[in-house]
Amino acid sequence: MTLEHARPTLDIVASLEQLLGDPVDGEGPFSFAAIVPAEERDELPVGAKKLLSDWGFADFLVPEGDGGRLRNLESALLLTRTLARRNLTFSVLFGSTLLGATPVWLWGTDEQRASVAAGLAAGAMACFGISERDHGSDLAASGTTAVSDGDEIVLNGEKWPVGNATRSRFVSVLAQHDGRGLSLFLVDKERLADGAWTNTPFVKGAGLRGHDLSGITFHDARVPRSALVGRPYRGLASVLKTLQITRTAIGAMSLGTMDSALRIGMRYANERVLYGSPVKEIPVVREHLVGAHLDLLIAECVALPVARALSVVPSRMSLWSSVVKYLVPVMGEEVLDHMGKVLGGRGYLREGVASGALQKLRRDHAITTVFEGTTHVNLHSIATQLPTVAAVADRPVEDGREVLRALFDWSREAPVWSPSGDALQLTNAAQDEITRGWTEAVEEAAAVAKERLDEGSAAGLSLVLAELTAHREALYAEVTGAGRTPDSVAASRAAARHCVLHAAASCLYAWLYGGDREGSAVRGDGWLILALQRLVQRLEPGRLLDGRHQDEFVSCMESALAKGEDFSLFPTVS
């Protein structure tokens, strides 16, 4: 297979990669030399936003059907990853705009879609006014009100904290509508009367310094009835469906951060000499580097297919987006921790190695486990659906192979996204091709291994697949027989184990269906065995990786670093 059909997106990503340059050794507003000092001043680097605007980054927030260049969530994920590798703050800035606009793409009228599309193209921003100071993630308790008054709706109440609340023009607002339920409204601040809203000051966070994280309060703000987005009193369902998209996109922020941290750690491990040799020769340092790289590849195998699912099987996003939102940021935190250990004391400094960027990456990335639903909220969502999925875990899904090939064949670009709120569902209804296809995939892998692998590697793959199969059987038997509530600690832990099995299946499908990965920085098949062993380590702490394939894997890492390639199975630079 070739990458001919994926080339349009790859060319765009390559263009952005070239524009932003090398953050460690390069110059300009997306170099760490510019980013870290600007953050010390709680500012964005001078010229950074203009550089992205001139390039046309905002065009990728508007679907192609509405005149923009957003082809699908896969392309958004790849672009966001590229941006996050330099500065996560800008990924959040544009991500907050996409979040605020997404309800309009899903349910908006022609007039609403045209207005937002034109505004974003002209440089306007959007935000998602959902959370409130006293209610947190309890969205049903929203105290903001929307009261009908003739041909208008009168809004009152505060939304806080909200990304882009001050700088945005458009606000998607969740409010109690005439006392009958929650509805979503599109507010254009340029069309409000003077004094109809006020912004609260920027919140001082541990990370994302310079980002607009603030609040907005409405004071008898009058908007036309046409400001309603979607059906009345269906606002909570609309919010939950919207988050399925943006939760997946957050995985891209973690991928970019992991990639950047790994580069910093590897460069330091190559250059720093202790006891007469580069520190990369120290076994425990090598363990940190190899484990971090495997975590990045695993996270990629989890996130990218779910991004594709929005165009292929959007009804699966309810469960799969929560898997991404839980597992990928958690793995990102661990990669950052590993690289902190590699750098030692220098990882704590706000200067020195990579201009002191690692400490910024760690503080910025911490937000990924919090917004769009905390880690616990997403585990609860998975735990709620897990008994249904576990009950049919061994039943094949009709046309399941076709779905899996569409999700994991990276030689072809995902289909163009046609936004539809009705295509998204609040639960998966037990439809989960990724985990339910495991048994067939293991059988297929055994046949493929005979042709592609030497005898020792084939035996190693068979062994680790058998170990994961045993864990799978034990988990799903436990879940179907437990009868516990989704909010229990045991249910949350079971949900986390399910995510590991989901990740194992995703790695296996990427190996089976991902094509020859022309141009990928990862060569050979040993990565799969190592990645699956790495996932077993999550289920059995204390296990060590087999040394058989590590030398080849480290060689790929070193080559990717030297060539400036992404640490990726997917060739994102053409």
In short:
The model is unreliable at 1-5 (pLDDT under 50).
Characterise this structure.
The structure is a single chain. By secondary structure, the chain is an alpha+beta fold. It has three domains: 4-121, Butyryl-Coa Dehydrogenase, subunit A, domain 1, CATH 1.10.540.10; 126-229, Beta Barrel (Butyryl-CoA Dehydrogenase, subunit A, domain 2), CATH 2.40.110.10; 238-563, Butyryl-CoA Dehydrogenase, subunit A, domain 3, CATH 1.20.140.10. The protein is built from 18 helices and ten strands. The chain has helices at 7-20, 32-40, 48-55, 73-84, 88-107, 110-121, 235-271, 283-312, 317-343, 357-365, 375-391, 400-408, 433-436, 438-452, 455-482, 489-513, 526-539, 550-563; strands at residues 126-129, 145-149, 152-163, 170-177, 182-188, 197-200, 213-224, 228-229, 273-274, 277-278. Strands 1, 2, 3, 4, 5, 6, 7 and 8 form an eight-stranded mixed beta sheet that branches. Helix 7 (235-271) packs antiparallel against helix 8, helix 15 (455-482) packs parallel to helix 17 (526-539) and helix 16 runs antiparallel to helix 17. The two termini are 16 Å apart. It comes from Streptomyces laurentii. InterPro entries: Acyl-CoA_Oxase/DH_mid-dom, Acyl-CoA_Oxase/DH_mid-dom_sf, AcylCo_DH-like_C, AcylCo_DH/oxidase_C, AcylCoA_DH/ox_N, AcylCoA_DH/ox_N_sf, AcylCoA_DH/oxidase_NM_dom_sf. This is Acyl-CoA dehydrogenase.
